[in-house]
Write a structure and sequence with these properties.
Strand content of chain A: 15-25%
Number of domains of chain A: 3
Largest sheet of chain A: 6 strands, mixed
Oligomer: homodimer
Number of helices of chain A: 13
CATH superfamily of the largest domain in chain A: Zn peptidases
CATH architecture of the largest domain in chain A: 3-Layer(aba) Sandwich
Shape of chain A: globular
Strand order of the largest sheet of chain A: 1-2-6-3-7-17
Helix content of chain A: 25-40%
CATH topology of the largest domain in chain A: Aminopeptidase
Mean pLDDT of chain A: 95
CATH class of the largest domain in chain A: Alpha Beta
Number of strands of chain A: 18
Distance between the termini of chain A: 25 Å
Structural class of chain A: alpha+beta
Low-confidence stretches of chain A: none
C-alpha cells in the first residue's frame, strides 16, 4: 500500500489521535497548566508506542519532562532523530478565536486549534510517517523521537538534558518540523533561524498609585518614562539605536542578497494577508531580508495604570514592558542581552527606578545546504510538491536547534510544512489538511531518499 | 448639648451609618455595578430622611439617579445646598489593599475603605451636622442636599439635570466637601480646581497578533508606535509640546505667585510620603504651582500585547493608552480635547491606524475669597482648627463645580477635610476619625457664621 492510500484509509483515526493531543492545553508559560503538560507527555508516549517504537519513556528534567522513544533496527544503519515540542503558546485573547482554541474544529479544509500547526500538528506527521514505514516493513533507518515541553519558553532545560544524554541522543541527522514554507505552491526549507533575547522592564516612580489631579504635573509618570525609553530604541528609519547592537551582525554577501531577491514574494499579497497599510522596517533591506538576515527589536507587551472600561484619572506607580530581539548569526544572545539591559538603565532618567530582567535567549542557526540530510529533504519535497524547494532563512527562533548543533554536533534539517497564514502564536491558529497529508508523504519520501544518498 | 458632645454620644451610630454606605460598591465606571448604584442612592435617601429633611427623593437622569432632599424652614432665610457624590472610583488593584475596599475597617484611628474620604465620608459629615442642627433646634437656614452618582466619570448627566431643575436647585450658596487640606495642622480651603480632558488612544497595525520571529523587523509594532506618539507629548523639561496647548493658560501674577511661595510645604516630607526620588515637572514652577496653577498631561493607563507571566514572543496587532490633561482657568476642555486629538493624529506615521476617542471633560474653577460663604467657611475652620485656613488652588477636578457656576449662577465653596495621605483613588483609601469629627464641627460652625454674616 502506498502512503497516499494509507493516509486515506486511516485519516479519521489520524485526526482523532492528533485532536487528543490538541485537547490538552499544554501551555508551558503558565504554571497553572502543569498537570496538562504531564498529561500531554503521557498521551504522546502512548501514541508513539502505538506507532511502533521499541520503547517510549517520559524523562524528567529540571523543568517539564521530555518524551523519548526509539526504534533501533540495525546499528549499522543511519539513525534519524525527530525533534518536536508538545507545549503550546498561551491562547489569549480567547475572545478572538472563532472556535475554542483547545477544541479542534475543521473548517474550510483546515484544522483550527492552538497547536494545530505549532507544533503538535507538525510533529505528529512524523509519528504517522514512521507508523506507515513500520507497518509496511519499509523502515531502513533507526529512528528516535525527542519531544520537549518547554520550546515556547525558550527550552531552558534542554541544554542540560542533551549534555547528560549524548549517548542516548546519538544520531546521524535530526529532523525538525516547526517552521513554515513560502507558500503551498512554493515549498521552501528553512536554512537559517534568528536567535532571541527577551527582557521585562519595570519602571517605578511612587510607592502607590496617585490621584492625577492632585499630583499630576509634579510627580513623574512611569508610563510616560517607559514610553520615552522604548521610543528611542529605534530611529525613524527602523534601525535599532542601541550602541554596538549591530557590531557582530553577519555581513551577507551581495551574491547571497541577489539570491534572496529572486525568492518569489508579492508585497501586495503580504500586506493584504496581514491587513497592513505598508511594510515598515530597516531602510535598505527588503521584507525577506528584514525577517531573515537582519536582527529585529519588538515590544511584545506593555501595561500599566488603569486599563479597564471608561476613564479613571490615576497617576500610576508602575509601568511594565516585555521586549524581545531577534538575532542573526554571530550575534551572541547573552552579549546582546547585557548590552540592551545596560543601555536601558543608562538612558533612564535618575528620578525613576528602572529594573530590567532577562527572561530567555537562544542563539541563531544556519543549516548547510550540501549535507546528505538537506539534499534528501530537498528531493523529498520536490517529489511530493512537484517543484524544488527554495532554501530560505527565516525570522523565527527554535532555541533547541543551535543547542543540538553545539552539544550533539548534528545540524538539524528544518523540514517545515506550515504556512504564514497558519497564524501560529495568534488566535485562530490553523493547519491545512492537504499540507498535513503532503507533510506525511514528504517525510516518508525523505526516509527513502536519505537511505539512498547514504 | 454642644456638637462635640453630640458627636461623642452618637459616634458608633454615625460610623455604622457611614459604613452602610461604604459597603455598597457603587463604582460608576463599571456597568456591572448598576444595581449597587441604585441601592446606594436608596440608602442615602433613607439616611437623609432620618436626619430630618422635609422630604427626600431619587430623581432619574439620563445616567445614574440623583438623590435630592430639602428642608425649607422659612423662604426669607438663605438657602444652603450641599453637593456630594455617592459613586466611587474602581478599587483595583484589589491585592494592594490591606483590608477589603468595601469592608470598612478602623485601624490607627482611620477608616480604611473605598469612599471613606471620596466622597461618602466627606458628604456624610454634612448629613450629621444637619441632623445636629435639626435635633437641637438650631437650624437657621433652608437646606438642600444633592447627591449624584456620576462624579467619578465626569458627571455626564448633571448639566442637563441642573438646566431642567433650576427652580428646585435654587440656593444662595453651595457647599462641596470633596477636596483636601494642606495638612491636619494647616487647614486650607480649595479656591481653584483644574479642568479635565480625557482620551483613549488606539493604535492598530495588522489584522491579528503576529509571530514576532516571522514578521518582526518587517511589520511596524503598534506598541512602539504608541510609545513614540506618547513620548513626544512632553519635552525633557516637563513642558507639554502640543502646539497651542498653553495658549489660553491664565498668566498668574507675580504677586499671587509670591503668596503661593508662602504656603508651608516640605519637599522632603512630600517625597518621603510618596516614596519618590525627586519631584519632576515643568521647569520654572514649584510643586504647588505645578499642581495648582499649571496644566498637566498624564498617561493614566497603557496596554497591548502579552502582559501575562513569563515570555511570549508576539508582535501585537493593537496597543492602547488612556491620556488625561488637567486644565487651568481660561483653558476650555472641548478646545483642548480637539487640539490634542488633532495633534496625535497628525504625528502618527502613515503606516499605522490611530483612533482617538474623547472620554470626558470638565472646566476649571476659581472661587472668590470675598464672598459671604467663603468668609463664613474661613471663620468656621479658624474656630475649630485654631488657625486661619489658607486659600489654595488644587489640582483635582470636580466636573460639577463649574457647571453650578454656569447654570445655577452660584460659586460653590469647597469645604474639604481630606488629606493627601488619604490615598483617594488608590488602594488603602482612608479618612482620619479626628477629621471626620472636626469636619462635622466645622460645618455646624459654618451655619452659625453664615447666618451672622448674612
Amino acid at each position: 500500500m502506498n502512503i497516499k492510500n494509507y493516509i486515506r484509509d486511516n485519516q479519521s483515526r489520524f485526526l482523532e489521535e492528533l485532536f487528543s493531543l490538541i485537547r490538552i492545553p499544554s501551555v508551558s508559560s503558565h504554571a497553572s497548566h502543569q498537570a496538562d503538560i504531564q498529561q500531554c507527555a503521557e498521551r504522546w508516549k502512548h501514541l508513539l508506542e502505538e506507532a511502533g517504537v521499541d520503547y517510549a519513556e517520559i524523562l524528567p528534567t529540571t523543568g517539564n519532562p521530555i518524551v523519548f522513544a526509539s526504534k533501533m533496527i540495525d546499528p549499522g544503519l543511519p539513525t534519524i532523530m525527530v525533534y518536536g515540542h508538545y507545549d503550546v503558546m498561551p491562547a489569549e485573547p480567547f475572545e478572538l478565536w472563532t472556535s475554542p482554541p483547545f477544541e479542534p474544529e475543521i473548517r474550510d479544509e483546515k484544522i483550527y486549534a492552538r497547536g494545530a500547526d505549532d507544533d503538535k500538528g507538525q510533529s505528529f506527521m512524523h509519528t504517522k510517517a514512521f507508523e506507515y514505514l513500520v507497518k509496511t516493513n519499509q523502515l531502513k533507518s533507526n529512528v528516535k523521537f525527542l519531544l520537549e515541553g518547554e520550546e515556547e519558553i525558550g527550552s531552558p532545560s534542554l541544554d542540560e538534558f542533551c549534555s547528560a544524554n549524548t549517548e542516548k541522543l546519538k544520531c546521524d541527522t535530526i529532523l525538525v518540523s516547526d517552521t513554515s514554507m513560502l507558500s503551498a505552491s512554493t515549498p521552501s526549507i528553512t536554512t537559517g533561524l534568528r536567535g532571541l533575547a527577551y527582557w521585562e522592564i519595570e519602571v517605578t516612580v511612587a510607592n502607590r498609585d496617585l490621584h492625577s489631579g492632585i499630583f499630576g504635573g509634579a510627580v513623574a509618570n512611569p508610563i510616560l518614562e517607559l514610553t520615552k525609553i522604548l521610543a528611542q530604541l529605534k530611529d525613524e528609519e527602523g534601525r535599532i539605536t542601541i550602541p554596538h547592537f549591530y557590531n557582530d551582525v553577519e555581513d551577507v554577501s551581495e551574491k547571497e542578497r541577489e539570491l534572496i531577491a529572486q525568492i518569489p514574494f508579492s508585497e501586495e499579497e503580504y500586506k493584504a494577508n496581514l491587513g497592513i497599510k505598508q511594510v515598515f522596517g530597516e531602510v535598505g533591506y527588503s521584507t525577506i531580508e528584514r525577517t531573515g538576515i537582519r536582527p529585529a527589536l519588538d515590544i511584545c507587551g506593555i501595561w500599566g495604570g488603569y486599563t479597564g472600561e471608561g476613564s479613571k484619572t490615576v497617576l500610576p506607580s508602575k509601568a511594565f514592558a516585555k521586549l524581545s530581539a531577534r538575532l542573526v548569526p554571530h550575534q551572541k544572545y547573552e552579549k546582546v542581552a547585557q548590552l540592551v539591559e545596560k543601555h536601558i538603565l543608562q538612558i533612564a532618567p535618575e528620578y525613576v527606578d528602572v529594573k530590567v530582567r532577562q527572561l530567555h535567549g537562544a542563539e541563531s542557526y544556519v543549516c548547510p545546504i550540501e549535507s546528505d540530510a538537506y539534499r534528501a529533504a530537498e528531493k523529498a519535497y520536490e517529489k511530493v510538491f512537484g517543484i524544488r524547494p527554495l532554501p530560505i532563512r527565516r525570522g523565527g527562533s527554535i532555541g533547541v536547534v543551535p543547542v543540538f548543533e553545539q552539544i550533539l554536533k548534528v545540524k538539524p534539517v528544518l523540514m517545515g510544512f506550515g504556512l504564514e497564514s497558519d497564524a501560529i502564536h495568534s488566535p485562530n491558529e490553523n493547519f491545512p489538511l492537504d499540507l498535513f497529508e503532503k507533510g506525511i508523504e514528504t517525510i516518508v519520501e525523505f526516509y527513502a531518499q536519505y537511505s539512498e544518498i547514504r
